[in-house]
Amino acid sequence: MSKHDPHAGGELPEVNFSEAGGVRYLHFGSEWVQGSMRISAPDEIDLEYVQRMMGWLLFVDPDTIAQRHAMQLGLGAAALTKFCRRRLRMTTTAIELNPRVIAACRLWFKLPPDDERLSVILGDAAEVVAHPHWRGCIDALQVDLYDEEAAAPVLDSEDFYAHCRSLLTPDGCMSVNLFGRSSSYERSLQKIVAAFGSQAVWAFRPTREGNAVVLALREPAHPSRADLVARAEWVQQRWGLPAIKWTKVLRSID
């Protein structure tokens, strides 16, 4: 176990699933939902906050997306991994600490086998971001690291976010899931700002469930609202994500 692992010296949580209304939910041994999949549309993104983790699409040239590299820290129910690999045709790498989660995604959540553009790696996200192997290589870094209690991010230090920034390409972006209604949100946001700079950080309003997705760009970007809306219309038309709504609930924190 890694030194940051809350289960060091013990067992990683059990992984199971439930189903309701045509949706399959992933759980880590508790009632908290750690991911979901519409059974009739396994490659689509079901949860609203997970859709917002794709907000980096508003800041890149759509014609370059298939040439880019996405990385997920925390596999969850593999919604982001499947969407980036299958729908966006990106090179996609997922890092997951718990082998049970990987097995569950392959058994229950239609995660395809690894191929020349998909790698699901059993590993420690803290070690991965600190290692030079992917430094400057990741265009979209999607961070969703919660334990079975879902109280606060497992990795949430300024050093961690600085390492995340070092992985990004010059126009790369990190999207991170925080809880906007918890006391940890402001502290986490301050750490991200310290690592990226306030001019590079954008934040969504919290969803009804309280998830607040924050986007942090490798370098500051200040697109006009008209440009954001135009990009959002393209994203929504092309991939069915509710990107036009994003522009109404996304703001620069600077």
Number of domain modules: 1
Percent helix: 25-40%
C-alpha geometry = globular
Assign the CATH architecture. 3-Layer(aba) Sandwich
Largest sheet: 8 strands, mixed
- CATH top level is Alpha Beta
- Class from helix and strand fractions: alpha/beta
How many angstroms does the end-to-end distance come to? 38 Å
How would you describe what is shown here?
Keywords: Polyamine biosynthesis. It comes from Ramlibacter aurantiacus. This is Spermidine synthase. Strand 2 and strand 3 form a beta hairpin. It is built from eight helices and eleven strands. The strands form two sheets. Strands 6-5-4-7-8-10-9-11 form an eight-stranded mixed sheet, sandwiched between helices. Strands 1-2-3 form a three-stranded antiparallel sheet, with no helix packed on it. The longest helix has 15 residues, at 225-239. It has 254 residues and is an alpha/beta fold. It has helices spanning 48-52, 79-87, 99-108, 125-130, 158-167, 184-196, 225-239, 243-249, and strands at 16-20, 23-27, 33-38, 69-73, 91-96, 118-122, 138-143, 168-179, 201-204, 211-217, 250-252. 30% of the residues lie in helices and 25% in strands. The chain starts with 15 loop residues before the first strand and ends with a strand. The protein has a single domain (46-252), classed as Vaccinia Virus protein VP39 (Rossmann fold, 3-Layer(aba) Sandwich), CATH 3.40.50.150.
